[in-house]
UniProtKB/TrEMBL annotation:
PROSITE patterns: DPS_1
Species, as recorded: Streptomyces minutiscleroticus
Domain Ferritin/DPS, residue spans: 26-163
SUPFAM superfamilies referenced in this protein's UniProt entry, alphabetically: Ferritin-like (SSF47240)
Top-level taxon: Bacteria
Lineage, top ranks: Bacteria, Bacillati, Actinomycetota, Actinomycetes, Kitasatosporales
GO MF term set: ferric iron binding; oxidoreductase activity, acting on metal ions
Annotated Pfam families: Ferritin (PF00210)
Protein name per the record: DNA starvation/stationary phase protection protein
Length: 187
């Protein structure tokens, strides 16, 4: 993002310029978490098939934790002197990823697509951790804590996609649609 998020004030020990960098970084994390929360609920509502109950019930705790993560990111943004922009219009206008496109589908198809979603989010969080770590250990720590939970959630997803030989059904796919196809083939 090329926007200037430099605040008029920030927390002690961080310059306004550095706080602006952190605010810009956290803005995309907030959008990603809000998008993930909505995507997880979308899957929760549209999952079908023999794994329905397991997947349906597995997703709600993830939704709750992702919502907490978004709140933590928004509050850190505000503490740094920024605006926690949580509107749907801002999310859609500023996101750097495509919308989730799988509708009513088999549980394993959705899990294949969610694996791709989690991979993208986790990769972006790791980049944000590296950037934040150069400026502020508190923001870095917040992101590290969230990374652990996101990786655990992906592990839960992948447990449904792994075969007895340890191979992941969605290995080497690059899109949610392709992952959903491969996942559906497992069902």
């Amino acid at each position: 993002m090329t926007n200037d998020f430099t605040p008029k004030y920030t927390v002690p020990g961080i310059t306004e310029k550095d706080a602006g960098k952190l605010i810009g970084l956290l803005r995309l994390r907030l959008h990603a978490l809000n998008d993930l929360h909505l995507t997880l609920k979308h899957v929760h509502w549209n999952v079908i098939g023999p794994h329905f109950v397991a997947v349906h019930e597995m997703l709600d705790p993830q939704v709750d934790r992702v919502r907490e993560m978004a709140d933590d990111v928004a509050e850190r943004t505000a503490a740094l002197g920024g605006v926690a922009q949580g509107t749907p219009g801002s999310l859609v206008a500023e996101r750097t990823w495509e919308d989730y496109r799988i509708g009513r589908a088999d549980a394993i198809a959705h899990l294949g697509a969610l694996d791709i979603v989690y991979t993208g989010i986790i990769e972006d969080v790791r980049k944000a951790i590296a950037e934040a770590g150069e400026i502020d250990p508190a923001t870095e720590d917040l992101l590290i804590e969230q990374l652990r939970d996101l990786e655990q959630f992906q592990w839960f997803i992948r447990a449904h996609l792994e075969n007895a030989g340890g191979s992941l059904a969605t290995a080497d796919v690059t899109s949610e649609a392709e992952a959903a196809e491969k996942g559906a083939a497992l069902s």
